[in-house]
Design the sequence.
């Protein structure tokens, strides 16, 4: 798992996130959560787990094959890993 390098943040009940698959340079990838209602063409963003990522149009295979980031999931559900 990636180490969370950002300051601890709290998710407000009003704050929405969207999941987005991010490919890895080594092959494969992972679906990270980003603040916002949906992806609107941003070229980069910081995920809920603190990872900086370039955002580009994913393929259907990316959505199917990339697993959910456990750190993003834990952050959004208030659980610790």
Sequence:
């Amino acid at each position: 798992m990636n180490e969370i390098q950002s300051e601890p943040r709290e998710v407000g009940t009003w704050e929405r996130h969207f999941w987005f698959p991010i490919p890895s340079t080594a092959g494969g990838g992972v679906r990270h959560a980003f603040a916002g209602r949906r992806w609107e063409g941003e070229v980069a963003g910081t995920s809920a787990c603190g990872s900086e990522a370039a955002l580009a149009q994913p393929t259907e295979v990316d959505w199917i094959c990339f697993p959910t980031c456990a750190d993003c999931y834990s952050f959004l559900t208030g659980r610790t890993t």
